[in-house]
Amino acid sequence: MNNALNNDLADCIDLGVTAEQQHAPLNQCVTNALKTYFEQLDGHSPANLYEMLMTEVEVPLLQAALTHTHGNQSRAAEILGINRGTLRKKLKQYGL
After folding, report:
1. Does the pLDDT at position 95 exceed 90?
2. Mean pLDDT throughout 48-61?
3. Which residue from 37, 63, 85, 90 has the highest number of Cβ atoms inside 10 Å of its Cβ?
4. pTM of the model
5. Farthest CA pair distance, the chain
C-alpha cells in the first residue's frame, strides 16, 4: 500500500471506523455518517445539512477527478459529467 492509502486507513481507524465500514458502499458510509451526526446533536437542531453534506462529498470528488487527470480541468469535467465552466465555478467556490 502507498503512504496516502495508509494515512487514509489510519484516519479511518482514528475516527472509529471499523474494517467492514472501510469497504462499505458509499451510500452506506453516508447513511452511517448521518446517523452518527444526528446522534451527536444531543438535542441541538441541525443547520445547513444539505450544504454541509455536499461540501463533504464534493470537495474530495473534485480533488480525485483533478488528481486522476493530472490537473486537466477539461478531462476532469468530462469524467464528472459537468461542463468545464461548472467545474471552474466549483473549484473557486471551494478554494481549490
Report:
1. yes
2. 92
3. 90
4. 0.68
5. 45
